[in-house]
Amino acid sequence: MRIRNLIPLLCILGTPACNSKNNADAGGPTASGVKPIKAAMVTDMGGIDDQSFNAAAWAGLQKAKAEHKIEGRFLESREQADYVTNLSSLAQQGYDIVFAVGFMMQDALAQVAPANPNTKFAIIDGDAPSAPNCVALKFREEEGCFLAGYLAGKMTKTGAIGFVGGVESPLITKFEVGYIAGAKTARADIRVIPKYIGSWDDNAKGKEAAEAEFRDGADIIFHAAGKGGLGVIDAAAEKGEGFYAIGVDKDQDSIQPGRVLTSMMKDVESAVFQTVGELIAGKWTPGTKVFGIKEGGIHLSPMKHTKDKVPAEVLAKIEDLSKQIADGAIKVPTTEEELQTFEPPKG
Fold first, then answer.
1. 3-state class of 39 per DSSP?
2. Fewer CB within a 10 Å sphere, N or C end of the chain?
3. Could you give the CA distance from residue 240 to residue 225 in angstroms, rounded to a whole number?
4. Which DSSP symbol is given to 127?
């Protein structure tokens, strides 16, 4: 197996560019009359409408606005060059906390955060600078991918399943190898077909990759490709009965009801909401926080449209595997090397 591998900026005085889409969503005053904190986020190139990773982070900020009466805004990025500009712009506008959504922003954050010590920064999936104003929010995605792979391995009729990744990276490798480990736990002779599209926002490439995998015999395809994954879901919908996509990050089951078997959910929304709440409560702490099944940060979707098609014993086994992972009895591989030595749990 081979592991292969942010829209116009708000035009405001004092900002150096005007090429990133933004949204300002102001909260009202608190009951005490104290001015609410200002929170913002910068998306990666997948954009706010990816129905996945970025959308989940924005949902967390919207929830914080509703419950804590904060001011909220996002800036989208068309290209990597926008990262420094967008992060710097929000800090210079006096935002109390800025979320960098995606590991591809870690170099930009390392440049911006030291120059803006009065702004708190939280990066999702990436490494944060070792500074008192920075925190990294990470997830053990491989754990949920293992469960998705197990489900796919039990539900495939062809004995072949697919994986479509976005940009090759150690992070997306975790998704792939976790998925393969789960599939091999379900079925030792499973064949997994992986492809990478080199993008987070290309629906057409995502659909093309999925169509190729379906032609190669796969009947279930898991994506970790941002907005590109919407193309995978479209391809499954066009194939029809007996073919499925597996969604990622958010519950994507309703995008094409009945054609998304499940979604591997990482609770970015709650992590963002919790981080804002900690800042408001004066409980901000720098460093790294990791969320997995044990912490409630990783799980499969409720399968609203497909649960009735999954045998009861498979659902029960997924619950058992989830408990074993949370308890530490199963350590899901995160690299190709770990996958090669992984021994599926018995029973």
1. strand
2. C
3. 21
4. P
In three-state secondary structure terms, 102 is coil
* Number of residues in the chain: 347
Q: Could you tell me the domains of the chain? A: 22-139+268-291 (3.40.50.2300), 141-266+311-341 (3.40.50.2300)
The single-letter code of the amino acid at 321 is L
**Which of 344, 347, 293 lies closest to 323, judged by CA?**
293
Q: Are the C-beta atoms of 253 and 247 separated by less than 8 Å?
A: yes
Q: Which residues of 286-311 are buried (b: 16+ CB within 10 A; e: fewer)?
A: beebebbbbeebbbbbebebbeeebe
Helix (H) or strand (E) holding 238: helix 229-239
Query: What is the Cβ-side half-sphere exposure of residue 155, based on CA atoms within 13 angstroms?
Result: 33
Q: For the chain, how far is it from start to end, CA to CA, in angstroms? A: 26
Q: 120: exposed, middle or buried (C-beta count within 10 Å: 0-12, 13-18, 19+)?
A: buried
pLDDT, one tens digit per residue, over 26-72 is: 444 444 445 689 999 999 988 898 888 999 999 999 999 999 999 99
| Those residues with Cβ within 8 angstroms of residue 50's Cβ, 6 or more apart along the chain or in another chain | 200, 201, 226, 227, 230
C-beta neighbour count of 177 within 10 angstroms: 29
Identity of the amino acid at 50: D
CA distance 86 to 28: 24
Tell me how far apart the 2 most distant CA atoms of the chain are, in Å: 64
CB 289 within 8 A of CB 89: no
